[in-house]
Specification:
The complex is a heterodimer of chains A (242) and B (248). Helix content of chain A is 33%, strand content 24%. Chain A is α/β, with parallel strands linked by helices and 242 residues long. Chain A is globular. Helix content of chain B is 72%, strand content 4%. Chain B is mainly α and 248 residues long. In chain B, helix 2 packs antiparallel against helix 8. Classes of the chains: A alpha/beta (242), B mainly alpha (248). At the A-B interface, helix 2, helix 3, helix 4 and helix 5 of A face helix 6 and helix 7 of B.
């Protein structure tokens, strides 16, 4: 694919928290339009940090970030990035802050300059799309874990992003909500990167699964093939382990 | 915790929060400045009347009035003895002055009258309507945000607190008067602060990701209805009468 389709180009990204060890070391990542990438890796391997760097919430100590062929360095650059890339936080409680569901979902569209009526319409449509119609006036902090997750997703989708970054979207969800999520994601015409520990989930809705280790992303070819025998639910279905 | 009273459906619940805010504000100013007992007693009566109209349950009402009156109790312990003036009677070497007693009585009436009004306001208006009403009344954004987030995060912190409390409970913690207990409570408060700070940071990040530029927009449209106009005229008249009685 040509440069026109290159959405995200990260080169030689290094990052460490003040006084802490290196989290990312010379990390490279490219995301093209239509890419559906799964990202696995042990806890603390820097996956969430990577997302925060893409969104401009953390600044790398060195390396370059180009988004839509535009180098992003300052907070101002990232303000535009955030209109196109939506990040779903690991903990839904971090994402929801308005008293009611509708207000929370409308928060993004209103920030993008939509009128009150437009924002309402977008929000209601998004909620409807996620099977959450009737949730408008529910109080956000009283929702169940699964509902919170879906509402958080609604708040991100309402901004009509071109790219989604999902940080462990399935954690704490039951099978039913997971299935809803799977349906929604596979029905979207978006590029996305999903962090998850669930290989079955990733195998179904992504085209590539990368692993993160020692602050780097290991692409398919760099992973050592291995065989093992194990048992888990749905083990009867053919699936891959990277 | 706070909205337990807002589910009622009294006449006052249906009124425009903007009108309620303005009325409570003006009422409080007049009551705070007033000195004559007729006016103060009038304001207390008005407050009681409003609370009754708002159908605030007596038990909840008393629960909310106790903290204010605890504070006033302390004033009663000191004011009558320290305020200069004509002695009413003596308690040992201490003189209780007439002015001191009047002063303390005034403060008691004023605070309770204002509290009654505030209780009626808070009890009849969902917090987020109040925030939006403040916004529409052109109260500075920073104050409105502070109000909103304080409310929202009191819940988050409270839940964090419950989680911490449960986690020490299930490990057999029983509060005693010893260093271990103090240390545990200190850790808990510390953890609560640090965790809340972190949470606030993450929420801010999440808001930035959704294009937050410092403005909160409201989806709620308020409109004045006949009820609102009538109640505001009535309350304004009461406030003006109180003012006239005080200063004319």
């Amino acid at each position: 694919m040509g440069l026109n389709h290159l959405i995200l180009n990260l080169e030689d990204i290094r990052f460490n928290y003040t006084g802490g060890p290196k989290v990312l070391t010379d990390l490279d990542l490219q995301l093209f339009k239509g890419d559906r990438i799964g990202l696995m890796g042990p806890n603390g391997s820097g996956k969430t940090t990577l997302f925060q760097i893409i969104m401009g919430l953390l600044k790398p100590s060195s390396g370059s970030i180009e988004i839509y062929n535009y180098p992003c360095k300052t907070e101002k650059d990232f303000i535009d990035v955030r209109k196109k890339i939506g990040l779903l936080f690991q903990d839904a409680d971090d994402q929801l802050f308005s008293p009611t569901v509708l207000e929370d979902v409308a928060f993004g569209p209103l920030n993008l300059g939509k009128s009150r009526d437009e924002a309402m319409e977008i929000s209601l449509n998004t909620l409807n799309f996620l099977g959450l119609s009737g949730f408008e006036d529910r109080i956000t902090y009283k929702l169940s874990g699964g509902e919170k997750k879906l509402v958080s997703l609604a708040t991100v989708l309402a901004m009509e992003p071109e790219v989604l970054l999902l940080d462990e979207p399935t954690s704490g969800l039951d099978e039913k909500t997971k299935a809803t999520l799977k349906n929604v994601l596979s029905g979207l015409d978006l590029s996305y990167i999903i962090i998850s520990h669930e290989i079955d989930f990733l195998a179904e809705i992504t085209d590539h699964i990368y692993t993160m280790e020692n602050g780097k992303i290991l692409f398919d070819q760099e992973v050592h093939a291995h065989e093992h025998v194990h048992a888990h639910p749905h083990g009867a279905y053919v699936h891959e382990h990277k | 915790m706070f909205e337990e009273l807002t589910n009622g459906d009294s006449f006052i619940h249906g009124l425009d929060p903007r009108g309620k805010l303005i009325v409570v504000f003006l009422f409080s100013i007049v009551v705070a400045a007033a000195d004559r007992f007729q006016v103060l007693l009038g304001s207390l009566t008005l407050g009681l009347l409003i609370v009754l109209t708002a159908k605030v349950p007596a038990r909840k009402l008393i629960k909310r009035l106790i903290p204010v009156n605890m504070l006033i109790l302390f004033l009663w312990l000191f004011l009558p003895f320290t305020f200069g003036g004509e002695p009413l009677f003596f308690m040992g070497p201490l003189a209780v002055t007439r002015e001191g007693v009047f002063y303390a009585t005034r403060i008691s009436i004023k605070s309770n009258a204002m509290m009654l009004m505030l209780i009626a306001l808070v009890a009849s208006t969902p917090i987020f309507f109040m925030g939006h009403a403040m916004h529409q009344l052109k109260i500075p954004n920073k104050i409105v945000h502070l109000f909103f987030f304080t409310y929202r995060y009191i819940h988050a912190i409270y839940r964090e607190y419950l989680r911490l409390k449960n986690s020490i409970k299930i490990r057999g913690f029983i509060p005693k008067t010893d260093l271990h207990t103090y240390k545990t409570f200190a850790y808990m408060v510390g953890m609560l602060l640090v965790r809340s700070f972190d949470r606030a940071h993450r929420v801010h990040n999440a808001m930035l990701c959704r294009g937050f530029k410092g403005d909160l927009y409201s989806l709620k449209k308020f409109s004045f209805k006949t009820n609102d106009v009538v109640s505001i005229i009535f309350m304004m008249a009461m406030i003006v009468i109180m003012g006239v009685m005080e200063w004319a």
